[in-house]
Amino acid sequence: MAIQRIETTAKNLVLTIQDYSLFAWRAFTNLYRPPIYWTDFLMQADIIGFGSLSIVILTGLSTGGVLALQSAATLSAFGATAVTGQFVSLTMIRELGPILTGVMVSGRNSSSMASELGSMVVTEQIDAMRALGVDPMRKLVTPRIFASIFTLLFLTIVSDACGIAGGGMVTVFMNHQNGLQYFSKAWESLRYPDIIQGLVKPLFFGYVLSSIGCFYGMRTTGGTEGVGRSTIQAVVWASVTIIFVDFLLTQVLLTLFPPL
Amino acid sequence: MSEPLIQPVPLADPPAESEPVVVFKNVSIAFDGPPVLENVSFSIAPGETRILLGPAGVGKSVLLKLANGLLRPDEGSILLFGEEISHMPEEELFPLRTRVGMVFQEGALFDSLTVRDNVAYQLIQERVSDEEIDRRVRDALRFVELEETFDLYPASLSGGMRRRVAIARAFIRQPELLLYDSPTGGLDPLTSTTIIELIVKERDVCQTPSLLVTHRLQDAFLLCNHRFDTASGHMVPLPKGVTDDGTTFLMLEEGRLIFDGSLHELVRSRNPFVREFLA
Predict the structure, then answer these.
(1) What's the mean pLDDT when you consider all of chain B?
(2) In this complex, do B90 and A135 lie within 8 Å of one another by their Cβ atoms?
(3) Which of A117, B1, B197, B207 is most buried, by CB atoms within 10 Å?
(4) What ipTM did this prediction achieve?
């Protein structure tokens, strides 16, 4: 009985991964074949990008502030408080900016995509769209995926900037250190590989969070209860996958751009 | 002007006059369990209205979705406008579906769009001009007597009004086939009669072939016993004993087609299930 359950679970998992891979590939390749719904892309970019701006700013400011607070105590033990700026900027740009933005945006948007598309599935709006001769993958999924990739890149830049600014505020107003020194260290320590690393990650995270959100939305079954289930699965899997992809990407990027 | 997002299919090679619009040949389908439909065969001739009867859960809606390629059969073949669609790629099905009007069980209107944009959905994709869209939407809404809902959202409409808007959306491009999925399900008798009147009007004025799914006998008989009177603008009963020749019946029992014939044949059927259903 137990073995049969394990077998069924394993089969379902493999089947889900296979379905997701086909879904994500189809959604991605749709951008290179007409028709392309540019209006929907712009609308989604506004919803995902501008809509997530406030949470990204708040998260960035708080994280940068926390980094400055935590590092100041440790660094002062070595008389190295001068490198707080370097510590905050590198941590934000290489790691925390992309990952926190990815997770925050996935919490807001993967859930919204899954619930919106899931509701459309259970009320037969997706079938109605297909019956009207419009491909829901092109009309609903592809614009969401590319809007997420596009906007997450800029949201990550905003988050990085806010993080460094937040760290600066804590350094100046709470730790009573020199602000000019903080910002000059933050700037001087940055190398191109750090920036590339920070800008490559959101491209992948945007793809992951939106494709998983849309995937669970489009395979919703079981009425309103099913919509709730899809929403939860979308948020959980998007967040977990982002963290896992971050690990893989970091490994690859560190190999390509080894630290000095 | 930019390229249309969907291409309407040109009517260069319409099916021959006598060729059926839809043909089901030994169609079976199952979803993780016993078959929902088993060896179903029937056809819809040009100008014919077929009423699919059966209790809830026998696979009526599934059959309707198969006819439009929204589902694929496990076995058998389905011809739509003479083209085999059971294995046709989804990309090739989209243009074919633009020739079919479909009314879903609950209307399936897009919540985020106004009635105007819902009804004009296909026209917007084809990048028809705004003036033309407004004119055609108003015509379609006038047909279902809901012109005043032009700027409203579906959330502010009653159940019956939503169905009528869905009918207007299905009619707007003057399709070559109409599929109705329980258009009167869950509606009060008065609203149901209004919907049936619209279907009779479409049948008699445009003579579009159609497949209508219902479990309500009174609606089926109403369709069969009435005609649309263009002079009065209302549905009127046919003389006693006369039924519409082009309106015939199909009946499903546990996924099997157990009846295919006229109203007279239906009421005289000796099949125990048919007799029980009619009782």
Answers:
(1) 89
(2) yes
(3) A117
(4) 0.87
